[in-house]
Each structure stands twice: as structure tokens, then as C-alpha cells.
Amino acid sequence: MAVYDVLGVAYARTRRADPRVAARIRGAVGEVGGVINVGAGSGSYETAGTVLAVEPSRVMLAQRPVGAAPAVQAVAERLPVRDGAVDTVMALLTVHHWSDPAAGIAELRRVARRRVVVLTWDQRVFRERFWLVRDYLPEAAAFDDARATPVDRLCELLGGARQEVVPVPHDCVDGFAAAYWRRPHAYLDPRVRAGVSLLAQPGEEILAPGLARLAEDLATGRWHTRHAGLLTLDALDVGYRLLVADQ
């Protein structure tokens, strides 16, 4: 069973494309003749040139909107398309779910004639700058330590790639892990946590003590005192990176 056959039941409710993140993805993809979206989920960030979506979860495929690009149920490590099928292949916040990232990246490169675009995060930066995992949920960070492929390693697998910082807006509408960095009460909502694999997969029992500390700090005002500087920022770099590799 694919991970998101379980986690993705209500995914579309909290994981909508943020226009500022989408603009950065469009800029990285560029003007191309065709795009394949690997690990496509419900297709939130698919560009106009997308000709095929690849997604292992039936649950996620069922949430794709009417009029979206054709989709096929398959995994990144075995893409059901020919060599050099399209100009560009993109994989957005998905590599950490792959069973074999090296094989998956090799497949992206095989299929792309011109460019591969990967949205991921730098776990070292994420751990250092994101208060939720640093101060309250180190257990969740440890979970990601085991599955997050280091950015340098991904760049190596891509045959060399430039890195672009993707700051997270303070009012980000896509509820990925650090989306609510300036809206801490959101992390106490189980519906929000259900759409974030970092928070959904470890299990509520593991997260409960840290979430209780967060709730107390919010109730007493300690969180706002400790993080007053964050409340003045419009966007924050917590490690999300676009990797762009030209073939």
C-alpha cells in the first residue's frame, strides 16, 4: 500500500497550491514542450505543460481535479515511459517517500531531455530553523533524519544541480510541514497534522508530549515572547530548496 493511501484521504483539504511557491516552480520549469510530474499527488503544482502525472496512491489519484493532466499509477523508481519522453520532469516534495531515491533520480534523468526539477528540503537547515521540530517535536525530526536524502547527495545524483531557496510565506496556503511557522496554533489541529507526513506518520502518542508543551506555551504567551522576531517576518527560509539540473 502506498503511504498516501492512508495519509492522503483528506489531503486536498489542507494541501492546496500556494501561488508564490507555484511561481517559483514555474520559473524553474521554464517554457517547455512537455512536463511529467512524478509523485504528483493531487496535482496542486502542475504546470500548464504537464502531459502526464505519475502517482503510486489510488487515493491521491482520485483527488485530482477534472481537467488535470492524464495520470498513471506507478512509482518513481520505474517510470512507465520511454527514454527522453519530455523536455522536463519534476518531482515536488516526494523524494523522501521513495524506496530508492538513487533509482528514482536516475529514472527522472532518463525520461527528461532538457531538465529535472526537484523540490525538497535541507534537513540540517530545517532542524536548526524550524522551531516546531527543534523545540517541541524532535521525535518528528528524527523520523525525517532517516528518510530525508541530503541535498548535496541529490545534487550529485542529478549530475550537478543549482539550488534555489524557497522561502515559506507567513500565510502559506499549502499546509506542508513548515507552512504554519507564524501560525503556531495550527499545529494543534489534528486535521492540519493529518496532511503532513512528518506529523502524521510518527503517530499521535509520540507527538503528544511535545504538542502539550506547545499548547501550554501558547496559552501562557511564552511562545510569542520567545519567537517575537518571527512575527515581524513575511517569509522564512526553513530549508526548502528547488534543485534544477539541466541535462
Give the helix/strand layout.
Elements: H1 3-7, H2 11-14, H3 19-29, E1 35-38, E2 50-54, H4 58-61, E3 71-72, E4 86-92, H5 101-111, E5 112-121, H6 123-129, H7 131-136, H8 138-147, H9 151-157, E6 162-165, E7 168-169, H10 190-194, H11 197-200, H12 204-220, H13 222-226, E8 235-236, E9 240-246
Parallel strand pairs: 1-2, 1-4, 2-3, 4-5
Antiparallel strand pairs: 5-9, 6-9, 7-8
Short characterization:
Helices cover 39% and strands 17% of the residues.
Outline the structure in words.
The protein is an alpha/beta fold. It has a single domain, classed as Rossmann fold (3-Layer(aba) Sandwich), CATH 3.40.50. The protein contains 13 helices and nine strands. The strands form two sheets. A seven-stranded mixed sheet has the order 3-2-1-4-5-9-6, sandwiched between helices. Strands 7-8 form a two-stranded antiparallel sheet. Helix 4 links the parallel strand 2 and strand 3. It is elongated, with a radius of gyration of 18 Å.
Rg of Cα set: 18 Å
CATH class category: Alpha Beta
Topology order in helix (H) and strand (E) letters: HHHEEHEEHEHHHHEEHHHHEE
Q: What's the number of helices?
A: 13
Q: What is the spatial order of strands in the main beta sheet? A: 3-2-1-4-5-9-6
> Describe the biggest sheet?
7 strands, mixed
Low-confidence parts, pLDDT < 50 over ≥5 residues? none
- Count of strand segments: 9
- CATH architecture label name: 3-Layer(aba) Sandwich
Q: Helix share of residues? A: 25-40%
The CATH topology is given as: Rossmann fold
Query: How far apart are the first and last residues' alpha carbons, in Å?
Result: 33 Å
| Assigned CATH superfamily | Vaccinia Virus protein VP39
Shape: elongated
Number of domains: 1
Helical/strand content category: alpha/beta
